[in-house]
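Saturday, quiet lab. Running sequence design on the C-alpha cells for the scaffold JK sent over.
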C-alpha cells in the first residue's frame, strides 16, 4: 500500500457547510414516524411535546460538552481521536469498532431501507418467487426475502458511496441541496397544518382514551417517559458525526463547536414545530391508532387529513427526499473515522488510503458500503438499530466525562470554546447517560446485552492489530 500515490484531506468546509451537515445528519425518518409510538406510550399530547423538548435539551447538553472537546482536539475521526487523548487506545478502538459494526453502518442500512420502503409504497418493487424468497441461512437470515426493497436499498448505498468517493464537495453539496428543499417543504406543512389543517388547541389539551394521571415519581410514568425519549433520541441521533470531518473543516477549533451547537438547536426547533402541528391537527387518539397500525406513518395520516390524496403523494415524496438526504450524509462522514483508525494500524489497512485525485478515504467508503449491504441482506439492522441509542449514549457520556478529565489533565491547554454551564451541564448529561444505560439494561436486557456483545467482538481484532502496531501515544 505504501507504494501507491496518496492524496490528502483538504480543509474545504465552511462553518455553514458544517452546520448544514450537522442538521442533515440528524433529520431523517424520525420526524415523520416517532410521534406515533411516543403517543402510544404517553397518551398525552403535552407529555409527547415535553419529551421532544427534553430530548432536544439533553442533546444540546451533550453537544455543548462535545463542543469543548472538539474545540481542543478537532481532527479527522471525531470521538476516536478524542478518546485516544482522554482515555486510551483500547477505549478509542471499542468506539470505532462499535461504530463500524453497529452504530453507523446500521444507521446507514436502516435509513436507506426506509427510502426503499417509501419508494415501494409509491411504485411496487418486484419480489422473487417464494422458493427463493424463503431460503434461510442458519434458520435466522433470509437474504432474498423482500428482495426488491433490499436491492434498491443496496443500490442507493452504492450509488451514494460513489458520489462521496469522488469528493467531499460533491457529497456535501448534495446534502445541502436536499436539506434546503426538505426544510422549506416541512415549513410549508407546518404553515398549512396550522392555518387550513382544521386543527384545534383542544386537541393539544385532550388526553387519549385510557390516559391515567400519575405523579412525576410514579414508576410507570418514568418507564413510559424513557420509552418515549428513546424514540425521540433515535430522531436526534447522528449530530456528533460532524466531528469526523474535523480534518476537513476550515478553522475547526472554532467552526466545529459552533456547527454542533447551532445545528442541534435548529433541529430541535424543527422537531418541536412539526410535532406540535401533528398534535394540533389530529386528536391524539387517532395518532395512537396510527402507532398501533403496522406500516402506517403519522405524517402521512396528518397531511392526508387536510390535503386529501394529493397530500399523501406530496408527503410520500417528501419522505423519499428526506431519507435520501439523510442516507447521503450518513454515508459521507463515518469513513473519516475508519481512516483515522487505519492510519494508526487499528483497522483494515486499506481504510488508511486517501485517493490521489479525489482526496477522500476512498477504500474506507468501499468497506463501509460492503458491510452495510451485508446488514441489509441479513435483515439484522432492524435489531441493531434497537441497540443504537444504548450504545451511542455510553460513548456520549464518555465524551462529556472527558470535559472533566481534560480540565484536570490539561488545565492550561487552549480551549477556543468552553462548555456553557460547566460543571452543571456536562454533569447533568453524564447522569442522564448513566440513567438511560441502566434503565435500558433493566427494561431491555436482550438488546442491551447484544449491544455489549457486539462491542466485545472487537476485542480479538484489537489484540491482533495492537500486537502489530505498538502504542506510541
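Result came back. Writing it out in full:
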Amino acid at each position: 500500500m505504501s507504494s501507491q500515490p496518496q492524496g490528502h484531506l483538504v480543509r474545504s468546509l465552511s462553518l455553514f457547510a458544517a452546520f448544514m451537515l450537522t442538521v442533515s445528519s440528524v433529520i431523517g425518518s424520525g420526524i415523520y414516524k416517532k410521534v406515533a409510538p411516543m403517543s402510544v406510550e404517553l397518551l398525552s399530547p403535552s407529555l409527547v411535546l415535553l419529551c421532544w423538548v427534553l430530548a432536544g435539551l439533553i442533546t444540546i447538553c451533550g453537544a455543548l460538552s462535545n463542543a469543548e472537546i472538539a474545540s481542543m482536539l478537532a481532527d479527522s475521526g471525531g470521538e476516536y481521536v478524542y478518546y485516544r487523548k482522554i482515555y486510551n487506545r483500547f477505549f478509542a478502538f471499542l468506539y470505532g469498532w462499535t461504530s463500524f459494526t453497529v452504530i453507523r453502518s446500521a444507521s446507514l442500512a436502516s435509513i436507506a431501507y426506509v427510502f426503499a420502503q417509501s419508494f415501494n409504497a409509491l411504485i411496487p418493487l418486484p419480489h422473487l418467487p417464494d422458493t427463493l424468497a424463503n431460503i434461510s441461512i442458519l434458520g435466522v437470515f433470509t437474504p432474498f426475502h423482500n428482495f426488491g426493497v433490499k436491492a434498491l436499498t443496496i443500490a442507493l448505498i452504492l450509488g451514494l458511496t460513489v458520489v462521496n468517493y469522488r469528493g467531499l464537495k460533491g457529497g456535501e453539496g448534495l446534502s445541502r441541496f436536499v436539506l434546503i428543499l426538505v426544510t422549506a417543504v416541512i415549513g410549508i406543512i407546518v404553515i398549512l397544518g396550522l392555518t387550513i389543517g382544521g386543527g384545534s388547541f383542544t386537541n393539544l389539551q385532550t388526553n387519549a382514551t385510557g390516559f391515567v394521571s400519575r405523579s412525576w415519581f410514579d414508576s410507570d410514568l418514568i418507564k413510559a417517559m424513557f420509552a418515549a425519549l428513546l424514540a425521540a433520541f433515535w430522531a436526534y441521533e447522528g449530530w456528533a458525526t460532524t466531528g469526523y470531518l474535523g480534518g476537513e473543516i476550515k478553522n475547526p477549533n472554532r467552526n466545529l463547536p459552533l456547527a454542533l451547537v447551532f445545528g442541534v438547536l435548529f433541529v430541535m426547533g424543527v422537531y418541536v414545530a412539526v410535532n406540535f402541528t401533528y398534535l394540533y391537527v389530529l386528536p391524539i387518539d387517532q395518532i395512537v391508532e396510527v402507532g398501533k397500525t403496522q406500516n402506517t406513518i403519522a405524517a402521512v395520516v396528518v397531511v392526508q387529513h387536510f390535503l386529501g390524496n394529493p397530500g399523501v403523494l406530496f408527503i410520500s415524496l417528501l419522505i423519499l427526499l428526506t431519507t435520501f438526504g439523510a442516507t447521503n450524509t450518513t454515508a459521507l462522514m463515518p469513513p473519516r473515522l475508519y481512516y483515522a483508525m487505519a492510519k494508526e494500524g487499528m483497522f483494515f489497512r486499506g481504510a488508511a488510503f486517501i485517493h490521489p485525485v479525489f482526496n477522500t478515504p476512498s477504500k474506507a467508503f468501499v468497506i463501509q458500503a460492503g458491510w452495510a449491504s451485508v446488514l441489509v441482506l441479513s435483515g439484522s439492522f432492524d435489531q441493531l438499530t434497537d441497540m443504537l441509542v444504548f450504545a451511542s449514549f455510553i460513548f456520549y457520556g464518555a465524551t462529556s466525562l472527558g470535559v472533566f478529565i481534560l480540565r484536570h489533565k490539561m488545565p492550561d491547554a487552549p480551549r477556543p470554546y468552553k462548555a456553557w454551564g460547566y460543571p452543571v451541564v456536562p454533569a447533568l448529561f453524564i447522569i442522564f447517560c448513566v440513567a438511560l444505560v441502566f434503565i435500558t439494561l433493566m427494561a431491555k436486557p436482550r438488546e442491551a446485552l447484544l449491544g455489549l456483545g457486539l462491542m466485545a467482538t472487537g476485542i480479538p481484532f484489537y489484540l491482533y492489530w495492537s500486537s502489530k502496531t505498538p502504542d506510541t501515544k
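Notes for JK: DSSP finds 20 helices and no strands in the chain. The chain has one domain: 15-468. Ask whether to fix the surface positions before the next round.
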